[in-house]
Amino acid sequence: MIRSILAAAALAAGLFAAPAAQAQATLDAIRARGSLACGVNTSAPGFTTLDAQGRYQGMVADLCRGLAAAVLGNPDRVRFVPLSFATRFTALGAGEVDVLMLTSTHTLLRDTQLGLRFTTYYFYDGHGFLVRRDSGANRVRDLAGATICTLQGTTNEQITSEYFRSLNAQVNILLFAEQEQVVQGLGAGRCDSYAMDASGLASARAALPRPADWVILGERFSKEPYAPVVRRGDDNWFDIVRWYVSALIEAEERGITAGNAEETRRTTQDANVRRLLGGTPELGQALRLDPAWAFNAVRAIGNYGELYNRHFGESTPIAMPRAQNDLWTRGGLLYAPPFR
């Protein structure tokens, strides 16, 4: 009996230890294969799309490249893995990707029930509604009885249902797998409204044939902080991804850009900047990375402000004000912990 109990305990311990050991090997596995497997979506202008040459573009795509530069020293050593919102967390948990970079809201249940960990926020958003300008809807409650389209497997589906239920109002919720399908539904008249985070609404509007015919209602119904997601059980990899995002924010605050990173690294006398750019080795050693990990990332994709302006700035079709996605010194929510 005792031998049976001990054998069962040993087997259980082995079952629990195997996933943990596998998770702990993320950085080593990336180095062994020579590339980062990065989970993205493919139909969200501003975040990720494919251009005419089949190259991934957008903030999420660049975040993947910057992480590859930080870990492997080369932004091109990344393998993009397109995922739907419905399958993204399963794919990450199964080891199909090393990091989930596509827009994923950090919630309590996701954080505690999926065997995953959310790292540092790279984008703050909120749930809203897109309608035709001539629809007569000035408030979201005016959409009672409408057909509202949203994406399956997102928090937006739940938020939309709960809001109209609180009003005791009926709506027809139509679910799609990809935003590109929603855009087609809006254009074809299948959807009276699109319920999504405001950034998604702005990118969808930019993709419509006549963007000026559509308006995003001003009300917001949720907090939607996006963060890269990794598997639980690998503290080193969690730290790398968390501090990588923070380094892009810190670089903007310190005035370090893709264009001046090399000169700044060579000439700066600021101890904080020297540590950040690898002039001293301790930060890289703490993360098991090259001392120049943050320097390589910023030189490859720029600081956070450059990244945002390139894909969401005033000169882009989306033209979304930074607002909460600005630095804390300018009234935004972006704040990097000290690099020391």
Automatic annotation (TrEMBL):
- Which residues does UniProt assign to the signal peptide? 1-23
Q: Which SUPFAM superfamilies match?
A: Periplasmic binding protein-like II
What InterPro entries does this protein's entry cite? Bact_solute-bind_prot3, Solute-binding_3/MltF_N
> What domain of life?
Bacteria
Q: Where is the Solute-binding protein family 3/N-terminal domain?
A: 35-264
Q: Mind listing the UniProt keywords for this protein, alphabetically?
A: Signal, Transport
Pfam families documented for this protein: SBP_bac_3
Family (UniProt):
Belongs to the bacterial solute-binding protein 3 family.
Q: What is this protein called?
A: Amino acid ABC transporter substrate-binding protein
Native source species: Sabulicella glaciei
Q: What is the lineage of its organism?
A: Bacteria, Pseudomonadati, Pseudomonadota, Alphaproteobacteria, Acetobacterales
